[in-house]
Amino acid sequence: MALVADTDLSPPKGARALAITGAACACMVMAAAATITLLGNGHHASVRLDLTPPAAALAAPVLRAENLPDTPTPAVTTAQYAGRALIADPALIENTPLGPLPRIADDGRKPMTAYAAPAAAGKFKIAIVMTGLGLSAKATGAALAGLPPSVTVGLLPYAADAPRWLNAARADGHEVLLEVPM
């Protein structure tokens, strides 16, 4: 019995035609791209960015201490607590016409450490932050009731009850962050 080998290794006619058509299309696309790149847009359109502020923005007063309304901002004069948690210490606050601002106390204490939740000594510190609280009263209440005090909570500042949730969280021992869009 003799084995006969097929010596014709050329592709079928359909595959050859498909390859030629594909190559021709690729050449036409490259030629069109080269033509557009070399000749450019016939209308010479370009993008313009107008950075002049609108007239209303120019007329608006800049917020400075001298042009603030006559209503006084509340000054922090005594230490304030939410439960056992310190939320405002006069030594760590500078009262300004724009409102109270944090500062380093004369004894070197920093607001970040003075207002932080207590951590176990000798343990690794891992930050766990539960964010997005404040908008849904049901979800926020459930989160504050179910989370251990070592979990930091992030409140949305535009929530209607943000001050109430802040006080409740601090009273439960949570460290609280405000989620300010950047």
Structure description:
By secondary structure, the chain is an alpha/beta fold. Among the domains are: 72-116, no CATH class; 118-182. Helix content is 31%, strand content 15%. It contains 5 helices and 7 strands, in the order H-H-E-E-E-E-H-E-H-E-H-E. The protein has helices at residues 13-39, 55-59, 111-114, 137-146, 162-171, and strands at residues 80-82, 85-88, 93-96, 99-102, 129-133, 152-155, 176-178. The strands form 3 sheets. A 3-stranded parallel β-sheet has the order 5-6-7, with helices on one face. Strands 1-2 form a two-stranded antiparallel ribbon. Helix 4 links the parallel strand 5 (129-133) and strand 6. The radius of gyration is 34 Å and the shape is elongated.
For this entry, what is the oligomeric state of its chains? single chain
What is the number of E strands? 7
What's the mean pLDDT score? 79
Q: Stretches where pLDDT falls below 50 for ≥5 residues?
A: none
End-to-end C-alpha gap: 83 Å
Could you give the order of strands across the largest sheet? 5-6-7
Gyration radius from CA atoms, angstroms: 34 Å
Strand percentage lies at: 5-15%
Largest sheet: 3 strands, parallel
Core attributes:
elongated; 182 residues; 7 strands; alpha/beta; three-stranded parallel β-sheet
In a nutshell, what does this entry contain?
With 182 residues, the chain is an alpha/beta fold.
Helices and strands in order:
Elements: H1 13-39, H2 55-59, E1 80-82, E2 85-88, E3 93-96, E4 99-102, H3 111-114, E5 129-133, H4 137-146, E6 152-155, H5 162-171, E7 176-178
Parallel strand pairs: 5-6, 6-7
Antiparallel strand pairs: 1-2, 3-4
